[in-house]
Specification:
The structure holds two protein chains of two kinds.
Chain A lengths: L23 H12 L1 H29 L4 E2 L6 E2 L5 H6 L2 H35 L2 H12 L6 H12 L4 H8 L11 H25 L3 H9 L4 H30 L2 H6 L7 H10 L4 H24 L2 H4 L1
Antiparallel strand pairs in A: 1-2
Helix pairs in contact in A: 4-8, 4-10, 8-10, 9-10, 10-13, 12-13
Chain B lengths: L4 H24 L35 E6 L6 H11 L2 E6 L3 H9 L7 E5 H9 L3 E2 L23 E2 L2 E2 L1 E8 L1 E5 L23 E2 L6 H12 L13 H14 L10 H9 L5 E4 L1 H9 L4 E4 L5 E11 L5 H11 L2 H12 L1 E2 L5 H7 L3 H4 L6 H5 L1 E3 L17 H12 L1
Helix pairs in contact in B: 3-4, 5-6, 6-14, 7-8, 10-11
Classes of the chains: A mainly alpha, B alpha/beta.
């Protein structure tokens, strides 16, 4: 039989599985896995997926399903009768106020932290010497080693009547402001506590901007404000979006700071949930309240993803 | 290994769908009939465990004891001697609220023996069938109890004792002596008065509505309130409106006793509702405060150790109930927690632990003092007037959220 050199050799089939020393059984399993890529994928993913589904997802779903049920308030037993009554109750005055207050303060905290963190992160990323940068990092991250409660109590001591702030201001002759036990106090405390979570992603985004881009912008005639507005800011925005996920979500779900330093009208969604689980034992209503931040955060995360936050994290 | 993204996505999707289908099948199909709807209808009826036999004598301990208790109720100071004396090893599950206690005791599969429930949880436990009657004759200290705590109606139903009273405390009016130089205020009106706007504090607890109702009982007799825990809708609405008007006067609703202590020691608040614990702590810190029970009376709380329906260690449970009602332990608990013992023989021991504590906690007060206290009990839809038009506790909670929200 004559073969010409231009004939292509027949394409090789899947390489034969190496002979398994332990016998034909393992060889067959190995061959089966080799042929069926979807089976390999399933087996590899099963352990982490099982953990995620069974321990995290399933328990969350089981709790959220109770949002459609009711509880017999006297005997404390769940009644598995499907109803939307809990959700209808959330859409009434008081709960809408609570939800609005939570979202508003979360938004204000996010904006404030972005404004405060940006110059700080810019200095750390582009101006400071490596030694100064390390010291600043230490300063930013050190408070995270302290207990959350200790930091909030410290702010109570600062902001309360006859506290450090009113003492200092009164010595300047400017009256004695008492900020504690108000929404303003909560805003201050939240901004302080979540600031490291905003500084670090913004720092990461700013650090990644190559100097050559800035030089090129200046070569093209852009002065510092224009360069900042049109080159640096757009490139740093994903970092800000990533940091904002932390500040927004953490404020949205918090209930401890309102309890400690909030005033008479400072209830957050978390407080309403806490009251309904503990005091009232009304798990269905608490579950329906829990759906609200989940929905809000889903929308927020979609927006943050569009801004590139997940690439910057 | 070469896992292409399609394979990963497909495998992931299959697993998620399988899990969701399983979950939907598990939850969605259960159409169990609603639980016995107590609290409505033609009255509560008879507690389900009423006819259960009581222990006739205490036998040998089973070796262990599981408690559901308030923090501070199972301190090593009296747990360790108990364990050594009886061989019952104690493990305590601490709960933060009465509702949490009810939930722990009613969850099937939980194996607790005793619960130290407050009055607002007791009837829920009794009528929910979570606790069983005890034999009061096996409690030698019972005869030395203050008379109103021997068989109070929050733990004794139809003559059956569902537990033994433990300790109690009133919700007092705490005031700063600087704001009230001429002596203690005589009326609860001070916490509803705009004179102290921004300087008032009350507990962040729906049962506070009962305090407002108690105030209206004296000041607005036309409402016809006789029991601050059994309120018809117009009475309930009047109390809620009073509290809504009070909202602008409040500096902060306190959740923890320590919060109220720091509110008063910093001078943020000058008057409010408190427990004797806060008063005593502030006085020990040399803050010029005092407390009083105004003319309209006060609400209070009283705790009962109740025996679980299926308690696995009944002998150890009875031994514990005997132990904690002895004068020594009653005095130690009173001193630690800041409350008043049911056993009046604890008085001299309290004075030994801390001089003057017996009268500071009103242990030796005349009966007229105790009659001014309306102890917490679960607000139910069934009222003593025979009708079922009282407001149940679940509505108290949602009303409270509107007051504080």
């Amino acid at each position: 039989m004559t073969t010409t050199g231009t004939e292509r050799p027949a394409p090789a089939g899947p390489p034969a599985a190496p002979p398994a020393p332990a016998g034909r059984g393992i060889a067959r399993i190995s061959a089966a896995l080799w042929r069926r890529a979807w089976l390999r994928a399933t087996l590899t993913l099963s352990p982490p997926l099982a953990w995620f589904l069974v321990i995290y997802f399933a328990s969350l779903v089981l709790m959220l399903v109770t949002a459609f049920w009711t509880v017999n308030s006297f005997t404390n037993e769940l009644e598995h009768s499907w109803t939307l009554a809990n959700f209808r109750q959330i859409l009434t005055g008081t709960y809408l106020t609570i939800i609005g207050r939570t979202v508003a303060i979360a938004a204000i905290v996010t904006v404030t932290d972005a404004v405060v963190a940006f110059p700080f992160a810019y200095f750390m990323a582009r101006v400071a010497s490596p030694r100064t940068r390390n010291l600043l990092f230490l300063a930013v991250l050190l408070p995270l080693w302290l207990s959350y409660l200790a930091r909030v109590f410290a702010w109570i001591a600062i902001l309360e009547k006859n506290g450090a702030l009113s003492w200092a201001v009164s010595h300047l002759g400017l009256g004695a402001p008492v900020l504690a036990y108000s929404n303003t106090a909560m805003w201050i405390v939240f901004c302080y506590i979540w600031l490291p979570f905003m500084i670090v992603p913004v720092y990461g985004a700013l650090e990644r901007i190559p100097d050559s881009l800035i030089e090129a912008s200046m070569d093209l005639g852009g002065r510092s404000w224009r360069t900042f507005r049109q080159v640096i800011l757009p490139l740093a925005l994903p970092g800000v979006a990533a940091g904002s996920i932390f500040t927004f979500a953490l404020t949205l779900g918090d209930y401890i700071t309102p309890i400690l330093i909030g005033g008479a009208s400072s209830n957050f969604i978390g407080n309403a949930i806490y009251d309904n689980v503990g005091l009232a034992n009304n798990l269905p209503f608490a579950a329906s309240l829990a759906v609200v931040p989940i929905v809000i955060m889903s929308v927020y995360l979609l927006g943050a993803r569009a801004l590139g936050a997940f690439d910057a994290l | 290994m070469n896992l292409s993204m399609t394979h990963v996505r497909r495998a992931g999707a299959v697993s998620v769908l399988a899990a969701v289908a399983l979950l939907a099948a598990a939850c969605g199909s259960s159409t169990s009939t609603p639980a016995t709807t107590g609290g409505g209808g033609a009255g509560l009826g008879v507690p389900p465990t009423q006819s259960m036999p009581v222990l006739s004598s205490i036998g040998k301990g089973e070796g262990h004891l599981n408690l559901v208790a308030w923090e501070g109720y199972a301190q090593p100071e009296w747990v360790k001697p108990f364990e050594q004396a009886t061989g019952c090893q104690v493990s305590a599950k601490y709960a933060g609220s009465s509702s949490e206690m009810v939930q722990l005791m009613t969850t099937p599969g939980n194996q607790y023996d005793l619960v130290s429930a407050s009055g607002d949880a007791d009837l829920r436990l009794i009528y929910g069938g979570a606790v069983r009657p005890i034999n009061i004759n096996l409690m030698p200290n019972w005869k030395n109890f203050l008379s109103f705590l021997k068989s109070p109606d929050f733990n004794t139903v139809n003559g059956h004792h569902y537990g033994i009273s433990y300790e109690f405390g009133p919700n007092v009016l705490l005031y700063s002596k600087k704001a009230f130089p001429s002596g203690p205020p005589t009326s609860w009106s001070v916490i509803y008065s705009s004179k102290y706007k921004g300087e008032v504090t009350v507990p962040d607890n729906p049962i506070q509505i009962a305090d407002a109702a108690l105030y209206l009982e004296s000041t607005t007799p036309s409402l016809g309130i006789t029991d601050p825990y059994e309120l018809t809708t117009p009475q309930f609405d009047a109390a809620v409106n009073l509290l809504k008007a009070e909202h602008v006067l409040i500096a902060k609703y306190w959740d923890l006793a320590s919060q109220e202590i720091s509110l008063f020691s910093s001078g943020t608040t000058v008057v409010g509702a408190a427990w004797p614990y806060q008063t005593n702590t502030l006085v020990a810190e040399k803050v010029a405060v005092g407390d009083t029970i105004p003319t309209q009376g006060a609400t209070g709380w009283a705790d009962t150790w109740m025996l679980a329906k299926n308690a696995p260690d009944p002998n150890c449970a009875y031994k514990w109930m005997q132990w904690v009602t002895t004068p020594q332990i009653q005095a130690e608990e009173a001193d630690y927690f800041g409350e008043t013992p049911a056993n009046h023989l604890a008085c001299p021991i309290m004075n030994k632990i801390q001089a003057g504590s017996c009268s500071a906690y009103h242990e030796n007060a005349p009966l007229s003092y105790f009659k001014t206290i309306k102890f917490w009990k679960t607000p139910l839809a069934t009222c003593d007037n025979g009708k079922d038009d009282c407001v149940p506790f679940s509505q108290w909670v949602s009303a409270w959220t509107q007051i504080t929200g």
